[in-house]
Design brief:
The structure is a single chain. The protein has a single domain, classed as NADH Oxidase (3-Layer(aba) Sandwich), CATH 3.40.109. It is 36% helix and 18% strand. The chain contains seven helices and seven strands. The chain has a seven-stranded antiparallel beta sheet with strand order 1-4-3-2-5-7-6, with helices on one face. Helix 2 crosses helix 6 and helix 3 runs antiparallel to helix 6. 33% of the residues are buried.
Length: 214
């Protein structure tokens, strides 16, 4: 009987360990950097995805990789990103990726998704049903640590919102090229997002962007 109890405890411990590592960081494939439509063709049809009948087609890791790189990826040696950064600072707006499998922080240096939680928080972040049903939602959050090093005290909010605008516009254009719909939204449950993503006191979400394949 004692041996059976020990065996059972070993199985429980193994299960807990397996469950805790079942979902870990995700190394993204290399982003697509060529092909697709020309910039002016994309600008002509750039539009937010409709609230009614928002597309819910799944987005591949390859496509997500390209969208995240378009938003804040290195595009040349040294300090050079796909969006303009004030005074040459590294990206000072973070992108969180929320999917049914969990929530992740995009690491632009290593081009990977760092796990924040393996809980499905789509129901928590907004009251909009179409967002809850989206296969992927991006959440933009100011990086208080980087913004705190700016040589322009008091400009943190302006810089963060301006950068978010550039990042989301890049995503719109890249998404259109890939047949993906996106929608920039400031309607969200900020308190729930802060709690679920374990954000710092000075880090409040700026917007959310649901994505879905057309």
């Amino acid at each position: 009987m004692k041996q059976k109890k020990v065996s059972f405890l070993v199985l429980v411990v193994c299960f807990l360990i397996t469950a805790s590592v079942a979902l870990a960081d995700i190394k993204l494939p290399a982003p697509t950097k060529d092909g697709g439509e020309g910039i002016f063709s994309l600008l002509e049809k750039r539009a937010s995805g409709p609230r009614d009948n928002f597309p819910t087609g799944q987005i591949s890791m390859e496509e997500l990789s390209s969208l995240l790189w378009a938003a804040t990826g290195l595009n040349r040696a040294g300090k050079g990103w796909t969006v303009p950064m004030a005074v040459g600072k590294p990206p000072y707006v973070k992108i969180y990726v929320v999917m049914p499998e969990g929530a992740f922080l995009y690491n632009w240096k290593d081009h990977l998704l760092a796990e924040v939680t393996n809980k499905n928080i789509l129901e928590e972040i907004t009251k909009d049903d179409f967002v809850k049903k989206s296969p992927c939602v991006l959440i933009f959050v100011p990086d208080a640590e980087v913004l705190g090093t700016m040589p322009m005290p008091g400009s943190e909010n302006i810089l963060a919102f301006a950068l978010t605008g550039a990042m989301t516009q890049n995503i719109y254009l890249a998404a259109d090229s890939l047949g993906i719909s996106g929608r920039y939204m400031i309607s969200m449950n900020a308190d729930a997002i802060k709690s679920e993503l374990k954000l710092g006191q000075a880090e409040s979400p700026l917007c959310v962007m649901p994505l879905g394949k057309k």
